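Re: weekly structure request thread

Next one in the queue (182 aa):
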Amino acid sequence: YTLEFLTAGGVQEVILFCCSFADKIKAHVAKSKWSKIVTPVVSEKCLSIGDALREIDRSGTIRSNFILVTGDIVANYKLGALEEHKNRLKADKDAVMTMLFKKANPRHPARSIEDDLLVSLDKSSGRLLAFETSPSKKAHIPLAIFHDRAAVDIRFDLVDTHIYICSPQVLLLFADNFDYQD
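Done, posted below.
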């Protein structure tokens, strides 16, 4: 499903990062219709997305904007957000990642407790200011996000799709072992 989603969105090259069962995955891709667009990259030592991004950075395979997704994505998004990302990056060189969220009210059937998150956004730019997963009954919103801003949107009705549009500068952020793990 992930490859269908990406190619439907116009993606022409896929780097498939494998940590486990790499030989089986490579053999499957080689026999599939995806063999011309998918390049498997293997590293069994990776424990996180940060490790994978550092490995991809070392390989030098990323030279332009890229879409970061996990292999278990089932989506039908239109990837028009890629153009939005490019425009945002032109206007603000620090806007190196665009996160795609889906609106889903707290009791929506497609949402689980693990999906609960509190998102704080700059109302005028849409820039992510704070992101808290599995918030408790009391939210922890840093006061600093309110400084020098006319308005801040605090949202509890969004789900992280785990689809991220990134500029190559994202790789530099992870190069110094900056990482996030679930």
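The two ends are 23 Å apart (CA to CA). The first strand starts at residue 14 and ends at 18.
Next request, please.
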